[in-house]
Amino acid sequence: MDLVSSGNETSAHTLENGRITIMFCSYGEKPQIFRLYGKGRVILRDNPDWKIYAPHFEIYPSTRQIIIVDVELTQTSCGFGVPMYDFRGHRDIHFDWAKGKGEDGLKEYIKKKNLIILYGLKTDLDIKEKL
Q: Per the confidence metrics, is the pTM higher than 0.85?
């Protein structure tokens, strides 16, 4: 489940070639990195598959899309270079920001920031906007 933010790289990259990597790091005592490699695709709210996947998440007003990954390969590595961190809590900044924008403000923000990425690649949201 993906929230509105200042970029939309994952959408554009999955449109370009479908490839996606998800990396998990252990920040505790035992270092380890775990990667999932596969093909990704974006599910927008008006996609019929939204009804299948959305119930698995808490959907917020600022939820912009769901990224589906068909995992083809997994890999672990030592993680010896990963620093140790202590979790101190979640941030509410995004949700306060989104609430302040409101529904129309979020739509306008998406039009400004999420249709095309830094390299000029289109996102799923840009393609939808053109329809």
A: yes
